Amino acid sequence: MIKQYLLSPGPTPIPNEVQLAMARTMIHHRTPEFAAVLEEARQGLKPLFGTANDVIIFASSGTGAMEAGVANLFSPGDKVVVVNGGKFGERWLRICRAYGLDVVEIPVEWGTAVEVSAVERALQANLDTKGVLIQASETSTTTLHPVREIAALTRDGGPLLLVDGVTAVGVLSMPMDEWGIDVLVTGSQKALMLPPGLAFIGLSDRAWQRTAETGSPRFYFDLNSERKGQAKGSTAYTPAVSLVFGLCAALKLMREEGLERVYARHDRMARATRAAVSAMGLKLLSPDNPSPAATGFYVPDGSDGDALLDYLRAHMGITLAEGQDHLSGKVIRIAHVGHMGAFDVIVAVSALEMAFRKFDLPVTLGKGVAAAQDILMEALD
Ligand SMILES: *Cc1c(COP(=O)(O)O)cnc(C)c1O
Asked: What is the CATH number of domain 258-380?
């Protein structure tokens, strides 16, 4: 047996406290006992979303909450602007098209953030735009989009701003009320340190109003019926009871660490990882607007990133993430999200250096590790 290190951007490692909470004996979901658990989870989510409004919990993967946002807020034919800078931007696009929306796409080169002025121009050219859809952290390209600046364009009577925050909520501060984000979505298997299976969606007041006026067909993902039920302690359909137990435990861990410390930890791990791969002479995938959730970098010319990843997994027990689509084989992504810390960064970088040596790629053992250590030392008293 070889010890496994799950350093992917989702699913992510699960703390023992969360595992144990999920092992709790099953209870019925239409009981005061479950209502209390659900209420604890609902309240615990609000600081993460930076909202005083309800955050709705669905039993689905993160994409379910993305679909819920589209289905509840737009009618077929509505015009929306979609920022597409990677696999998840593409997902917004496909959901919007599936719902018959009139999509104005802003294509963004992979590894770069959208220009705020490009969104501004798209809105000026399409005054009937009902919504803007974007990722906060585009996980596939390890890039952060300027959500706060875009919210400044859409708030106060502009189109609704729907933000896929799946590798942003719990990683960096995403105060939706303060910034004027209308819809913020995340899933359980990234920063929330849970298994896959829960999706979360928060709505602004004006987004809730819009749900009453729009006409896309919806059933399971009906936000209003969930809102009524969840406020009274029950979900419309059978909830993922064990995952909600785990959620309460995960939220407690985050509260105990303190959200500011959680965000600072992610920022530090990200800076350390970037410093390490840069010290190894590798080119960052997203040098200008990197995500604090994961770091992508190009493998040396002529080498095969996927072969390196296979080697890391099979011989070293280390799971990192691959490049997608046209970056397949050219890029590797190291995640630093959720239940991860300084020594996960060290493990990832050290293993990468050893795999480079094994593949006869240029590397000085320890050089990347030392660069990471320099930054990770910041957190030591
Ligand atoms: C993981 C992820 C999702 C959700 O994917 P699911 O597989 O449906 O959970 C959505 N957006 C981003 C940016 C992600 O990283």
From this structure: 3.90.1150.10
